[in-house]
Specification:
about 55% helix; mainly alpha; about 270 residues
């Protein structure tokens, strides 16, 4: 949903609450920062980030007061290892490699690299690019940095893509983790330009992989291939959604269907 309609505080509260329950909410944060910058500008974006952090401190206060070292060490432990026997996505990797720090760092670098590529080449393409958008944001920090108000479609596509990229490079996926993104796959697939049979095949490929127990080399290959193809489809498809809002000088806002690869700023 748009972040400029005056209902940000409840959304931030729910997001922070969700983060306190399950750390996979971190996977949305890169996309959320993109949305903040496009919708709100630098200053208000920083305020929103601080609100999320303060809520985390408030929620953790009983534990921070009692055992601060244990809380900060274990509550957000990003270095923990997972059991190889439960992995769904990396069964074809030998266990010693799966448990190695080098493999974890490789996945982290891959994760960050794909996020950076989407940020530089796709998510800000209708605003003149990431650097130009950031520059505008610092020149006028109290105004939104995007030329056009992001639509709900654009916001949800960016958030879901950010989450899928994180899932793809996750150090391990266990069976319950399918709930992280299962409901998002149809929307993401329909933001690609794949023909309908390919979309359905990718959806079935992901579903098949999550329903094989225990996971096999084949099921892990299919899962990773499906994720990569969906991300690739988003790259060459509609990574910021299929609808745009144009803002006239009279502040009349209307949506148009974007079925071309022409940047919206060049449309009449």
């Amino acid at each position: 949903m748009p972040l400029y309609d005056g209902y940000n505080e409840p959304r931030l509260t729910l997001s922070s609450f969700a983060l306190s329950v399950k750390m996979n909410i971190f996977l949305y944060m890169p996309g959320l920062l993109v949305v903040f910058l496009k919708s709100l500008g630098v200053i208000e974006s920083l305020v929103h980030v601080v609100i999320i952090l303060l809520l985390q401190v408030w929620l953790g206060m009983p534990f921070i007061m009692a055992h601060p070292k244990s809380y900060f060490t274990n509550a957000f432990d990003l270095s923990r290892q997972f059991l190889y026997k439960w992995t769904v996505n990396w069964r074809f990797i030998p266990e010693d490699v799966f448990l190695s720090r080098r493999f974890a760092l490789t996945l982290l670098m891959g994760h960050l690299s794909v996020l950076v590529l989407f940020a530089f080449r796709k998510w800000f393409q209708n605003d003149g690019g990431l650097l130009a958008t950031v520059r505008r944001g610092f020149i006028k920090p109290f105004q939104r940095a995007s030329w056009d108000l992001p639509t709900g479609d654009e916001i949800i596509t960016i958030l879901f893509t950010s989450n899928l990229i994180g899932v793809t490079f996750a150090r391990s996926l266990h069976y319950q983790f399918y709930s992280w993104y299962a409901q998002q796959l149809p929307l993401l697939l329909w933001r690609t330009k794949y023909p309908l049979p390919i979309k359905l095949a990718l959806l079935l490929g992901v579903e098949y992989s999550w329903n094989v127990f225990p996971s096999t080399n084949t099921s892990s290959y299919i899962l990773n291939a499906s994720h990569i193809l969906i991300i690739g489809g988003l790259w060459f498809g509609y990574p910021t959604g299929t609808r745009r809002k144009k803002v006239s000088f009279k502040d009349n806002i209307h949506e148009v269907e974007d079925n071309t690869d022409v940047p919206f700023s060049e449309l009449d």
